[in-house]
Automatic annotation (TrEMBL):
Top-rank EC class of the record's enzyme: hydrolase
Name of this protein: Arylsulfatase
Gene3D superfamilies with a match to the protein in the record: 3.30.1120.10, Alkaline Phosphatase, subunit A
Biological classification of the source: Bacteria, Pseudomonadati, Planctomycetota, Planctomycetia, Planctomycetales
Domain Sulfatase N-terminal: 28-343
Gene transcribed to yield this protein: atsA_24
Amino acid sequence: MIRTLIIALSVYTLLPALLSAADAISKPNIVLIMADDLGYGDLSCYGSQNCNTPHLDRLAANGIRFTDFHSSGAVCSPTRAGLLTGRYQQRAGIDGVVYANPKKNRHHGLQKNEITLAQCLQDAGYQTGMFGKWHLGYQRQYNPTFRGFQQFVGYVSGNVDYFAHLDGTGVFDWWHNAELNREEQGYVTHLINDHALEFIRQQQEKPFFVYIAHEAVHSPYQGPHDQPMRKEGGGDIKSAKRKDIANAYREMNTEMDKGIGQIVDVLKEVNLTEKTFIFFLSDNGANKNGSNGKLRGFKGSLWEGGHRVPAIACWPGRIPEGTVCDEPVISIDLMPTILELANAKIPAGHKLDGVSLVSLLKDRKSLVPRQIFWEYNGKSAMRQGHWKLVLNQTRKEPIELYDLTRDMSESKNLADNQPQRVQQMQSALAAWKSDVQKTATTQPEK
């Protein structure tokens, strides 16, 4: 009787630890990596002839490479808002760039009523860390450490000098959690990666979520051996030697690729490869200094070159290796996907616009047909199957319709030949705009 009681008490005492260990095994670690302004044709596994990216190529070979993946925005801040809320950025209150210039909207940011991916994962028992570009609010109240990330090292603006760590207005912008850190020096791409590596090595007992938001390949175009270009207070250093942009772009891409290889290697080193889900994407298409392959348009446009981006998923042993996914997918799908993988929940009544990709990733089951929408700077677009409607991208052709299966380069406008389809898609787009506007999070006045 006494022995039975002792055994029962022992099991009762150990039960929390046993449940915690079982929970850690069932919940995969999450590594979410976002490049900045990287185009559809900027990786060698997507056909690039200018940039060699062996580590991302290896990641794709060990997982799934997406050919029809889209950022929810055509520029930086909106896509990041959509990514971290699982909602169209128009609903989340950040439908355009949050600018460093105080004369514009520097006071805007991701409001507290928006529920982030990091918050949901932290509530589910994850350790959370973010390293790199935030761009969802400059004021201290918007710092990532108040939006679900327990650790943050990086910058809050749209871009910084890779060495001087100054934003576009000459303001110093390098943070450790919610405090500026002027002591840390180094090339931004290396610093982001080094802190991410350190974070991963520190995680032993609980599952973790790390968001690695690279500055590469966004301007200013500085390779790892260049010099600072910006000076505090604003302006450029006139004596700074400017490198050929094409070479700098290639070097920036190379350094990011090397760092991602190090992330994969450290997961292997700490025996977490098969316990970790990795997803890589870009926040929008390339500008004219990069490559969008055969796609039409660049960053800021709602043609495919503005939002169809490279994307790779890898989870050895859990999702198929060396496969290509042609399903249309959008970045707001990542939050519901990761929450399902982590067995994490969102607050009751809170609406997500994305859909989970778990069955697509694990079992290659097709997604339920749906409509996908974009809007930026007075332009709008939508997908319905292989059809795409683009409105107000140009004055010459304010209504454009393309069959992307036959015309991924959007070279043949079929709007005049498909008036009923155009009308139906315009109605759907108008209904979507009305819906997100009714429930949109508002930003404070100046």
